[in-house]
Design goal:
Shape: elongated
Strand order of the largest sheet: 2-3-4-6-7-8-9-12-13-16-17-18-19-20
Number of strands: 20
Distance between the termini: 16 Å
Structural class: mainly beta
Order of helices and strands: HEHEEEEEEEEEEEEEEEEEEE
Helix content: under 10%
Largest sheet: 14 strands, antiparallel, barrel
């Protein structure tokens, strides 16, 4: 009966997530996603997100943490773990004179974890790698031309499917590797329109980039169980710079805008066949730790550094900057005892993070700050949990005519823990 109830809950949530994913036009709304490969997604689940994003030194037998593949070693030898989540966001975009609100929702992740042998654990799943979604208008009046409106639009993103493995070297140390497959399409369109001229035709250039290649990232994890239930976790992650295969298509045409807002193409100026090339994704290094008491409390911190100055697109270097991220967070559970009241068994989480992105615009590097909090709600008579996380934060600035983003993000996740590998003596 318990398994049937869990299965029905899982099916209902997966259907909801699929509907959310299909109905969402984009999974991000930010003018800053115009640059590079878009806004990078964090390799976290809802538990990590609620604690400021700490993940490198964090492990648990009840959820999957692909940010450090070496942490898979914590999976129980007789268990199967299923993690699924969805998120929604509301962002207020502001300049010194204008403001606008954007909303979006999307699938956050879909992950599985299970044991293979006593020293080998494995995981596979699907999650976003980066997202692009923006629509910017720039209207000006130029001499001898009149009014000209420049439109910049982008959509799409890169997805990441992965198969990860963790190998225990001894009771404290483990190593891990994720074999990632990156795929997806990013489409960007630039258009010039002339609203005051009956003789000048509008022009639009559409660039579509398809990504399809494999990538690797590695992890080390050390966990030591001390006296009185105290434990320490230390993790390191590394991914070497890699050239990812991509294909680019370009289409440019002159057009009129019909009364219904549809582009009526007059003639094609650019129609380049598919060009194959490489996108160089740079080296990433990170480390973190956690310290706590088993089934009671935990605190931790992460640091990440990425060499985005080495990024290139089809052999052309970009003016991106190296990035860093700092995350601090923790959680507290009043009591894990089944005889305690339900609210005593809820896990309370909170954290914060600070990062500067790979963008430097008008002499200022764009930074981001967020404060997060969340709950882990135990599902009665199981070891599965329903997890909630919320984050409020800000990115960018209105100085130097830039754009400031104030955002609120909400994530809902379900972590299902089941005993699947028990050999029963009786039927």
């Amino acid at each position: 009966m318990k398994s049937n109830r869990t299965l029905k809950t899982l099916q209902a949530l997966v259907l909801l997530l699929c509907f959310t994913q299909v109905s969402a036009q984009t999974r991000i709304s930010s003018p800053y996603s115009r640059f590079g490969i878009g806004e990078l997604s964090r390799e976290n689940n809802v538990m990590n997100m609620a604690m400021g994003g700490i993940s490198y030194g964090l492990s648990s037998p009840y959820f999957v943490n692909p940010a450090n593949p070496a942490t898979y070693r914590s999976f129980d030898t007789l268990s199967f773990i299923f993690d699924v989540g969805a998120y929604a966001s509301q962002t207020k975009l502001s300049t010194t004179s204008l403001s606008e609100t954007a909303n979006f929702a999307s699938l956050a992740y879909l992950k599985f974890g299970f044991p293979v042998t006593r020293w080998w654990r494995s995981s596979f799943g699907l999650m976003p790698y980066s997202g692009t979604g923006y629509k910017v208008l720039d209207s000006q009046v130029e001499e001898n031309i009149g009014s000209i409106t420049r439109r910049y639009e982008g959509s799409g993103g890169i997805n990441q499917g992965y198969w990860g493995n963790s190998f225990a070297l001894n009771k404290n140390f483990s190593i891990g590797v994720n074999f990632n497959y990156l795929f997806g399409t990013i489409e960007k369109a630039n258009a010039n329109t002339f609203p005051d001229s009956a003789y000048r035709m509008n022009y639009k250039l559409i660039t579509s980039t398809r990504v399809h290649d494999f990538d690797l990232n590695y992890g080390l994890f050390y966990k030591r169980q001390g006296k009185k239930g105290y434990n320490l976790g230390i993790g390191l992650v590394f991914s070497n710079g890699s050239n990812i295969s991509a294909t680019e298509d370009r289409l440019g045409y002159r057009y009129f805008i019909s009364s219904t807002g549809v582009d009526n193409v007059f003639d094609t100026i650019v129609n380049e066949p598919s060009v194959k090339g490489k996108i160089f994704l740079p080296t990433n290094v990170g480390g973190g730790f956690t310290f706590g008491k088993t089934d009671k409390w935990l605190v931790g911190a992460d640091y990440q550094w990425t060499m985005w100055e080495k990024y290139s697109y089809f052999g052309s270097a970009d003016s991106l900057k190296n990035t860093m991220r700092v995350s601090v967070g923790g959680q507290y559970t009043p009591s894990m005892s089944t005889v305690s009241g339900y609210f005593q068994r809820i896990t309370y989480r909170a954290g914060f993070r600070y990062s500067n992105s790979f963008l430097e615009l008008r002499g200022q590097q764009i930074d981001e700050f967020g404060i997060s909090f969340g709950l882990g709600l135990p599902i009665p008579r199981t070891r599965s949990t329903l997890n909630l996380a919320a984050e409020v934060g800000t990115r960018g600035t209105t100085s130097n005519n830039l754009i400031k983003e104030n955002f609120f993000r909400f994530t809902l996740g379900l972590s299902i823990f089941e005993r699947w590998f028990i050999i029963r003596k009786y039927d």
